Amino acid sequence: MLTKIKRNKKAKNLVSIIIFIFSGAVVLLIMALLIIGNMRVNEKRNELNTKVDLLEKQIQEFQEKEEFLKSQILEMEGEEWLEQQLRDLLDFRKPDEKTFIIPEKD
């Protein structure tokens, strides 16, 4: 009877050790999967942050170009610009102005 009790205790101890080892392995496996998932998420986040930075730079460049073009439009809408273009491209002059042509040297 005493040996039967000792065997039951040994069997119970063995089962509890196996359960403990198995549960520890499961916990380690879950932790490893979580760590790998976290690393992948961080990698993706870094890629997206890089893309966001690039797009923000492009937005800034487009805003600067827009401001430049708006200033050019305002300048071209004025009479001074039109007058200058007529003078430069078509050799127009005002009625009271004289035009001088300077010959080029060869």
What does this 3D model show about the protein?
- With 106 residues, the chain is mostly helical.
- It has helices spanning 2-77, 79-90.
- The protein has one domain (2-90).
- The longest helix has 76 residues, at 2-77.
- It starts with a helix and ends in a 16-residue tail after the last helix.
Oligomer: single chain
Global structural class:
mainly alpha
Largest sheet: none
The proportion of residues forming helix, as a percent range, comes to over 70%
Query: How many discrete structural domains?
Result: 1
Radius of gyration: 42 Å
Order of helices and strands: HH
Total number of strands? 0
Shape: rod-shaped
N-to-C span:
129 Å
Percentage of β-strand residues: under 5%
Total DSSP helices: 2
- Taking pLDDT < 50 over at least 5 consecutive residues as the criterion, the unreliable ranges are none
Average pLDDT taken over every residue: 86
Question: What are the defining features of this structure?
Answer:
106 residues; rod-shaped; 83% helix; mainly alpha
Write a brief structural summary.
By secondary structure, this protein is mostly helical. The chain is built from two helices and no strands.
